[in-house]
Write a structure and sequence with these properties.
The protein is an alpha+beta fold. Helix content is 41%, strand content 20%. It contains five helices and four strands, in the order H-E-E-H-H-H-H-E-E. A two-stranded antiparallel ribbon has the order 1-2. A two-stranded antiparallel ribbon has the order 3-4. The two termini are 31 Å apart.
């Protein structure tokens, strides 16, 4: 690996860490899920608002935190997101760890990899 390649790799790692730090400290609830609804990432605001710790997220899916009254609507949105459609502004009621319903507003964006996942 050339010195320039090493420098570029180092710069890319620094940028990735910088972006992750920004997202982790954002006040907005940020979550990423895979096509089954398993959490890939949630930020600190998400964890503190819903009162979960990072280890608990490994055992949860999106479907565990969607309020039953919102489930049918969110399943329809999720199916469309899997086709690559962005939804812009949406509202949801998430269920916190203690069972409290928390209304959140935000954007749903599809970010698919080269294989459509």
């Amino acid at each position: 690996m050339s010195d320039q390649d090493k420098k570029n790799e180092h710069t890319a790692r620094e940028k990735a860490a910088w972006y992750k730090d920004i997202v982790d400290h954002a006040r907005d609830l940020i979550q990423c899920v895979d096509k089954e609804g398993r959490f890939i990432y949630v930020n600190q605001a998400w964890l503190s608002t819903l009162n979960y710790n990072a280890e608990e997220i490994d055992n949860l899916t999106l479907w565990d935190i969607i309020h039953p009254d919102s489930m049918e609507h969110w399943m329809a949105i999720f199916e469309q997101v899997l086709t690559g459609k962005d939804f812009g502004e949406v509202e949801a009621v998430f269920v916190a760890k203690d069972g409290t319903g928390i209304t959140v507003e935000g954007n749903v964006d599809a970010k698919l990899d080269k294989n459509g996942r």
